[in-house]
């Protein structure tokens, strides 16, 4: 329409008055038309912008991984990445062997019920300290090298990007250049950085945390620094959180001596070497190092404790819900996963695979990996993981364990570890290909549990024949259909759902954890076993049955949680938190998880007939000795492995002690 008015406007002549008025009429008609058009376009652009913003916002909310929520730990991260702009305390400079670092100082606010155990109210925070050279370009898929020296002062006030995850949405910020650690120490004003008012001017014990995430996701952004500092640094402990390469970049292997895999473990080794060489500068004692891992970090800690490369780099360990005996911790399936990835990214070229992998853009690599399945359709779950390379990880675990230094070890587990897999736990980033992925909870019955057991045994029977697999399936069916039946009283969908969860939990976590604990105790390792059995009210209200899920103690120790967001807002939660922090702090400092007066934490007996441990419940700590609910499982799996042969049972690369 606009073109018509323009044509008429310029075709008019100014002779008679009639044409003049006609000109005025068309001029104002033309003017108002374009004014309306401009207003219309402005309104359209405005609403288009609002609609786009709205869709973008909800796309982010719906597609980001559910464990990354807008909760306390994310607020911590925002403060950290802003380089502590709101921090009123001065920056802190310190000289390391590689160069000078600049961190910052914070005020500590430890939990009120822990006040008797804490004495420090200031902490020095150093974020993003390089412990290795960036594993990029020619160093991609190579063992880590010591960090280069730097000139000037290196800013250490920002949380480092996570290592490249299996899925790009599993971290808010990630990079191949990710081999950094964070260090949090009690503030000491004297130049020697020794603990004041002690007879020998001691240095602080060290607690090194290795994050979980199935060897495919995770990073130090999850823990931040506020909660760790409040909970542990206030007790006079230096805490260090480390990162390691994940997924393909961390565990690629073709089975050859050139590419044996386990690069993520070598990263952890390099971090421990850096700590030994530098921690005294921060006031730490390199001869009092405790390595603490959760889930995949726990399995890593388990491996580090017996590997010839790392077993002498620390003195104690805390293993939280993970063992090297877990089927997902050490698995040769990584070879097949590596081959699939090579094909997916176009690098399955005989003789040129390594060169191709070093040249490919990391985003193309991630995209190629994402085309593959997220998890394996078996008890191993994760696609990439450590493997037996007979170098870092010896296949003869028993000999490695017998010859390693006998480290004081805390090992913990929960009652329903695999609940986040069996019922696709709210806020979980994992999803096992289970029968519950397509049906309602209330439809889970006896037949579905039986079908799962038999189908799985025939699909993943290992070295068992069809007949042997069927016999093992029958024994599993008999045990898990009758287990705790008398206690529950009736068979309904909740009963079968819980038994399915227990089967997964036993195979993936509990039996492997107990096997390692008992084997170490039998070889005179001081082992302190605990079961975390406190249920947060916020979580239990959302679940079909009472159970304590994998990593349930995480928020009590570190603040955030991988499986949802809840606050420790009641007296029971605060009491349990104080008990945990008291025990962990005591173990780091003294090698024994002492608890408040009245409860002595027992160590496991070297005699396998007895299992004694602490059960953490809302009313406090309870001693357990050979409880029937646990002994039934242990005896069943021991007899099954001896009767059928452990290597014929899916996921069991070891004999039960």
Automatic annotation (TrEMBL):
Q: Name one Pfam family in it.
A: COesterase
Q: Which protein, by its recorded name, is this?
A: Carboxylic ester hydrolase
Q: What is its EC number?
A: 3.1.1.-
Q: Tell me what organism the protein belongs to.
A: Meloidogyne enterolobii
Q: Which UniProt keywords apply?
A: Hydrolase, Membrane, Serine esterase, Transmembrane, Transmembrane helix
Q: What class of enzyme is it?
A: hydrolase
What sequence ranges are listed for the domain Carboxylesterase type B? 94-612
Q: Where are the transmembrane segments?
A: 20-40, 46-63
Question: Which family would the database say this protein is a member of?
Answer: Belongs to the type-B carboxylesterase/lipase family.
Q: Name the Gene Ontology molecular function terms of this record.
A: carboxylic ester hydrolase activity
Do you know which InterPro entries this protein is assigned to? AB_hydrolase_fold, CarbesteraseB, Carboxylesterase_B_AS, Carboxylesterase_B_CS, Type-B_Carboxylest/Lipase
Superkingdom assignment: Eukaryota
